[in-house]
Amino acid sequence: MDLLEMNAVQAVHGSTSQPNQPPLKLMVIGARKVGKTALIKKFVDGEFPVSNPTTKEERCRKSITLENQKYTLEITDTGSGDTWEDQTIKEAHGFLLVYDLCKKSTFEKIAELHDKIHKADAEAAVFVVGNKLDRSDEREVSTEDGSKEAERLGCKFGEATGKTNVEWVFLTVVKLVVQRAIKRRELSSSSRDMGVTSEGGADSWFETLALCLGIDSIVKQ
């Protein structure tokens, strides 16, 4: 693990967000039956689900503290469908892009799904996850291939199961979102100092994200 990953694992759970702080929105996207619901349920409830996979889009929330900052996460489980509303993607702040490392066909959809995210947000924080690591004896996608594809797409990469590495995966994508927001704030401040203004839509998206993250207090640390 690199420093970013180790910092993410050191997060403390069970905290509440600041009053009136909107949730940080994450989406879990992938082909059917790659284990999206299992990852979410393990992270949110601490239990490996034994029920049938989600067949429709669902949302759940979890409060965390990461590096002394409190956040409420709103996690969207896209279920078994392969299509999502563009507006839902545009409203998300970070993404987990999941494939089943035992089914190469799900890995081959990663680039297509990433392209859809990229069209909505060219600078999105995306974490590519090779899921079902506990069945590595049935592996069809090597760790090297997964890592290379994620690197090609400009994404962070890791492997997990519904029982292991789940916390690290979710907290790392939150960390990526925070880093992106801090960078955006610094660029925005620099542009204003130079008398340059950005489009209203972009400013609106960032101000919403800044509220979710308490970004001013983060930058001041």
Explain what you see:
The protein is of the alpha/beta class and 221 residues long. It has 2 domains: 170 residues, P-loop containing nucleotide triphosphate hydrolases (Rossmann fold, 3-Layer(aba) Sandwich); 40 residues, no CATH class. β6, α6 and β7 form a beta-alpha-beta unit. The N terminus and C terminus are likely disordered. One of its GO terms (molecular function) is GTPase activity. Pfam families: Ras.
Say how many strands there are: 7
What proportion of the residues form beta strands (DSSP E)?
15-25%
Radius of gyration: 17 Å
CATH fold-level name of the largest domain: Rossmann fold
Number of helices: 9
Q: Please identify which CATH superfamily of the largest domain we are dealing with.
A: P-loop containing nucleotide triphosphate hydrolases
CATH architecture of the largest domain: 3-Layer(aba) Sandwich
Helix content: 40-55%
- Terminal CA distance reads 25 Å
Mean pLDDT across every amino acid position: 78
Physical arrangement of strands within the biggest beta sheet: 1-3-4-2-5-6-7
Write down the domain tally: 2
CATH domain class name of the largest domain: Alpha Beta
Q: What is the helix/strand order?
A: HEEHEEHEHHEHEHHH
Low-confidence stretches: 1-17, 196-203, 215-221
Tertiary shape: globular
Alpha-beta content class: alpha/beta
